[in-house]
Write a structure and sequence with these properties.
Elements: H1 2-11, H2 14-30, H3 34-45, E1 54-55, E2 66-67, H4 68-85, H5 89-95
Antiparallel strand pairs: 1-2
Helix pairs in contact: 1-2, 2-3, 3-4, 4-5
């Protein structure tokens, strides 16, 4: 978590920060730590607004070109899915 704070605060590069978030997310999924994977995705979702700005396709093709609100919504849906897989259904209610 300290490393993430460093990227967010010191480097001030959203692109690098999001890249690191997804590296961490992939590691959690691989280790079947679904709850942690969901919380990691939440870090990206919190950076996004509910706007009609068009976001380009993600460099790793993880997300297509879409409105910012659509990406945020898709990320929240994936968060809920991860929480459900991690058996923390109660927490997923607060994401909605």
């Amino acid at each position: 978590m300290q490393f993430q704070d460093f990227y967010k605060r010191e480097v001030q590069s959203t692109k690098l920060y999001v890249h690191y978030v997804y590296k961490l997310y992939d590691l959690h999924v691989l280790a079947e730590n679904h709850t942690e994977a969901g919380f990691t995705l939440k870090l990206h979702a919190e950076l996004l607004a509910w706007s009609d700005d068009v976001l380009p396709e993600a460099p790793d093709s993880r997300w297509p070109e879409q409105f910012e609100w659509q990406r945020k919504e898709a990320i929240y849906q994936r968060i809920i899915s991860e929480f459900n897989s991690g058996k923390v259904v109660f927490t997923s209610l607060f994401v909605y």
